[in-house]
Amino acid sequence: MNQNILWIVLLGIIGLLVVLFFVFVPVGLWVSSLAANVKISIFNMVGMRLRRVKPAKIVMPLIKARKAGLDLGVNQLEAHFLAGGNVDNVVNALIASERAGIELKFEKAAAIDLAGRNVLEAVKMSVNPKVIETSNVSAVAKDGIELLVKARVTVRADLERLVGGAGEATILARIGEGIVTTVGSALSHKEVLENPDDISKRVLTKGLDSGTAFEILSIDIADIDVGRNIGAQLQSLQAEADKNIAQAKAEERRAMAVAKEQEMRAYVVEAEAEVPKAMAYALREGKIGVMDYYELQNLKADTEMRETIGNGNPEKKIMD
Q1: DSSP label at residue 257
Q2: pLDDT confidence of residue 290
Q3: Pseudo-torsion of CA 264, 268, 269, 275, nearest 10°?
Q4: pTM for the complete prediction?
Q5: Calpha distance 287→285 (Å, rounded)
Q6: Which H, E and C letters describe 271-288, residue by residue?
Q7: Distance CA 109, CA 65 (A)
Q8: Which of 36, 124, 157, 283 would you call most buried, defined as having the most Cβ atoms within 10 angstroms of its Cβ?
C-alpha cells in the first residue's frame, strides 16, 4: 500500500515537471524555427522567458524576416522589444521596403518605430504617396475681395527625416500661409480666378517641406470660391468710425459754445446787477433827477411792451 502511494506521488512529481517544462520551454516555437531553418537554441528561448520577453514576439518575426531574405539577428529583435518597440511592425516595414527597392536599415526602422511613428505606414507612403486636403483658406486680394481656396497636396514620406521631422499639420499650415501670401499679392481677385495654377507654382517654390517628414510632390487647387467684399466692409466700418469721431467733435464744440454762452450770460447778469447801484449813486450825487429816473422807467416799460408785442403775445404782458 505504501509502495503504491509512493508511485502515485512520483508520477505526480514527474507530471508537474513535464507541465513546467512545456510552460517555460516553448517547444512548439522551437520546432517551428527548426522547420523554417532558423536556428535558435531552446536555451535561448528559455532565457527570453527569464528576461520577460515573449518568445513568439521574437521568433515569428525572425522566421518571417529570414524567409524574406533579411539578415536579422535574435539579439537585434529582442533589444528592440525590450526598448518598447513593435518588432513585427518593424520587420514588415523592412520586408516592404526591400520589395520596393527602398534602402532602409534595421537601426533606422527601429528608431522611427521608437519615435512613435508607424514605420510600416511610412514605407507604404513612400511607395504610394498620400493626398491630404486643406480646409478652406481665406485670402484677400488687393481689390478687397475675399477668396476661399481649397488645395490638395500630394506628399511622400521621407524616411530619412521621419525622426525629428514635422508632421502633416505643419505642411497644411505652411500651404495656407503660401496661399494667403499669393492671393494677397494679386492686384485683383480675377487674376487668381483666371490663373489658379499661379498659386501652386509660387507655393512650391517656397520649399514648404523643409524640416518636415514629407516631400511635397504637387499642390493642386481643388476649388476657389468668391467670398465677402472685405474692402467695402472695411471702408464702411472706417466711414462709420469717422462719422462717430466727427459727431463727438461736434458735440464737444457745441458743449464749449453752450458753456461760453452761459459764461457771457453770467457777465450780463453781473453787469445788470450793477445798474441799480449806479442809479442809486447818481441820485445821491445829484447826477440825475427824480423826473429823469421816472422817464427812464417809462422808457424801459415801453421797450418791454414793444418786445412783447413783437413776440406775438401782447395780452399776457399787458395783463401782467
Answers
A1: H
A2: 65
A3: 160
A4: 0.55
A5: 6
A6: HHHHHHHHHHHHHHHCCC
A7: 14
A8: 157
